[in-house]
């Protein structure tokens, strides 16, 4: 499918027949060579095609409800219905009366399965007939229960002073910036960040959407707990540093927190500058799908904004990137971009907006509301069936609670009272511990599933035995440690030669350690032996190497 063409339709040869309602189909119109099509409906996935849903029988209604439950399960709580579309993808369209009746039936079905519907868009199908025919695209979203909202993590990248933190402040606080950085103040963690206006650490912000697709943020909710209670879908932003001085912190955020997507923020008045290319290269090397936001358009003329867009398009189309840029300028574009972005890794949506005037901010919110998770229910179930592995990213001591660790559950399921082992220590040992309690977004949670981030209370466990980069795993896993490992290296950019004895910082998942190159076999892209300064837990994983700020 080509980007930017509305519903993504493309001409296809005619001749398909409607097996379900052949007589009705033949009376309404005859397909021509220009009849538009969508791809044929897939049995798996969260997208369902329906020609019409007019006055179904009770038996048919129950069957449709079961079908909707299946599609919601496939989409982990979200499904998209195309009304007026044949199973083979032909855009037949419905009359105004049939469309109202079909949407009414869809409302009843959603109510039965505990979901809400949002009509994303309606459009007329252009046929040679006297009666106007329409198709509708409808988002079905499950009303959450027991804190099981859909959670997507978005890493925020971009050069220093590109407007990353300001944009997140506007999205999560619900108030526009005053042009002097007021919106970003709530995101900063340190005094020097407030004084300089530059992020040096990793911070997290949340943006919620309820079952009806409405924004849930701090403008209407006072706490994160209230946002979690109201939201059916949560976008967790990982705000990363833009200055080259803090590149190691940015790399750690990309490798450790397992982002689903990356948002590269580029200032319209400076274009591609500073660490922009490095951040783009890192996201692509780690295979994180990326979309681009051009900020500060209120400071520039339209010609300057268009020049920045063309500059980005040239970079994205270069060999090594091979991306298909898609400029989003309407709600219809935002809906199409969200659907195609998740399906094709080559599509790169580009938004142009302002955090001061609010221009096109609503298009970015539509995009976040619709964008589906990358993994389907089957892949998620397979991860949950594996043994428990929790990555330790943060360590705290909380009064009256004890030792608390924060991180991401890489695989399996974690419950209160589970017995795990944590390590490795400097001597290569693992220690036993018991999970006291679990919290997600500051709300109590009894069960943690693969892919979710949380904090775990460990009671009186000795904090001195813990460090960042450790893992908490099931004892049945029998983890092994290593001081040396073999890796295939692809050198993205560096001024010096990669050779034996070369010292690098290795980022693998939540592990960040210094290592020496013990041996190089053949070309640089061939397997290379690296030796750690300390023992670590290793699995087959994508890694990033850094030498004095360069990758």
TrEMBL record:
UniProtKB keywords: GTP-binding, Nucleotide-binding
Residues in Tr-type G domain copies: 149-377
InterPro entries referenced in this protein's UniProt entry, alphabetically: EF-Tu_GTPase (IPR050055), EFTu-like_2 (IPR004161), GTPBP1-like (IPR035531), P-loop_NTPase (IPR027417), T_Tr_GTP-bd_dom (IPR000795), Transl_B-barrel_sf (IPR009000), Transl_elong_EF1A/Init_IF2_C (IPR009001)
Gene3D superfamilies from the UniProt entry: P-loop containing nucleotide triphosphate hydrolases, Translation factors
UniProt cross-references to PROSITE patterns, sorted A to Z: G_TR_2
Region (Disordered): 1-22
One Pfam family, short name: GTP_EFTU_D2
GO molecular function, one term: GTP binding
Family, as annotated: Belongs to the TRAFAC class translation factor GTPase superfamily. Classic translation factor GTPase family. EF-Tu/EF-1A subfamily.
Protein name listed in UniProt: Tr-type G domain-containing protein
Species the sequence originates in: Echeneis naucrates (Live sharksucker)
């Amino acid at each position: 499918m080509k980007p930017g063409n509305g519903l993504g339709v493309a001409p296809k040869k005619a001749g398909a027949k409607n097996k379900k309602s052949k007589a009705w189909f033949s009376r309404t119109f005859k397909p021509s060579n220009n009849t538009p099509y969508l791809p044929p409906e897939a049995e798996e996935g969260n997208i369902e095609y329906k020609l019409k849903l007019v006055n179904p029988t009770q038996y048919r209604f129950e069957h449709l409800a079961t079908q909707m439950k299946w599609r919601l399960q496939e989409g982990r709580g979200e499904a998209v219905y195309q009304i007026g579309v044949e199973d083979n993808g032909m855009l037949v369209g419905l009359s105004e009366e049939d469309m109202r009746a079909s949407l009414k039936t869809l409302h009843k079905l959603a109510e039965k399965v505990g979901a809400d519907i949002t009509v994303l868009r309606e459009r007329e199908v252009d046929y040679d007939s006297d009666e106007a025919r329409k198709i509708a695209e409808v988002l079905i979203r499950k009303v959450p229960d027991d804190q099981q909202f859909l959670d997507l993590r978005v890493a925020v990248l971009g050069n220093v002073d590109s407007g990353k933190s300001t944009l997140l402040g506007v999205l999560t606080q619900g108030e526009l910036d005053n042009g002097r950085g007021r919106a970003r103040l709530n995101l900063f963690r340190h005094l020097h960040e407030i004084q300089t206006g530059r992020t040096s650490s990793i911070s997290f912000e949340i943006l919620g959407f309820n079952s009806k697709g409405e924004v849930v943020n701090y403008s209407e909710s006072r706490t994160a707990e209230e946002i979690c209670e109201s939201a059916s879908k949560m976008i967790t932003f990982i705000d990363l540093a833009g200055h080259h001085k803090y590149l190691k912190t940015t790399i750690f955020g990309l490798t450790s927190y397992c982002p689903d997507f990356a948002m590269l923020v580029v200032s319209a008045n400076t274009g591609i500058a500073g660490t922009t290319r490095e951040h783009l290269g890192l996201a692509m090397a780690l295979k994180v799908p990326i979309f681009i936001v051009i900020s500060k358009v209120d400071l520039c003329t339209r010609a300057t904004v268009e020049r920045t867009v063309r500059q980005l398009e040239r970079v994205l189309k270069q060999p090594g990137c091979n991306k298909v840029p898609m400029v989003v300028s309407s709600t219809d574009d935002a809906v199409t971009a969200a659907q195609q972005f998740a399906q094709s890794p080559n599509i790169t949506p580009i938004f142009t907006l302002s955090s001061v005037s609010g221009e096109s901010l609503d298009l970015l919110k539509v995009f976040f509301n619709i964008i589906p998770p990358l993994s389907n229910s089957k892949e998620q179930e397979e991860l949950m069936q594996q043994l428990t592995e929790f990555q330790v990213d943060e360590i705290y001591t909380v009064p009256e609670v004890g030792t608390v660790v924060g991180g991401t559950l890489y695989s399996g399921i974690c419950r209160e009272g589970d017995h795990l082992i944590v390590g490795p220590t400097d001597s290569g040992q693992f220690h036993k511990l018991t999970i006291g309690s679990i919290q997600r977004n500051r709300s109590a949670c009894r069960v943690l599933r693969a892919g979710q981030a949380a904090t775990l209370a460990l009671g009186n466990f000795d904090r001195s035995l813990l460090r960042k980069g450790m893992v908490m795993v099931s004892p049945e896993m029998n983890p092994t440690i290593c001081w040396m490992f073999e890796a295939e290296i692809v050198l993205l950019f560096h001024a010096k030669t990669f050779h034996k004895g070369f010292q690098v910082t290795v980022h693998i998942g939540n592990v960040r350690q210094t290592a020496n190159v013990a041996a190089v076999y053949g070309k640089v892209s061939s397997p290379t032996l690296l030796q750690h300064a300390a023992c670590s837990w290793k699995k087959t994983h994508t890694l990033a190497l850094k030498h004095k700020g360069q990758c």
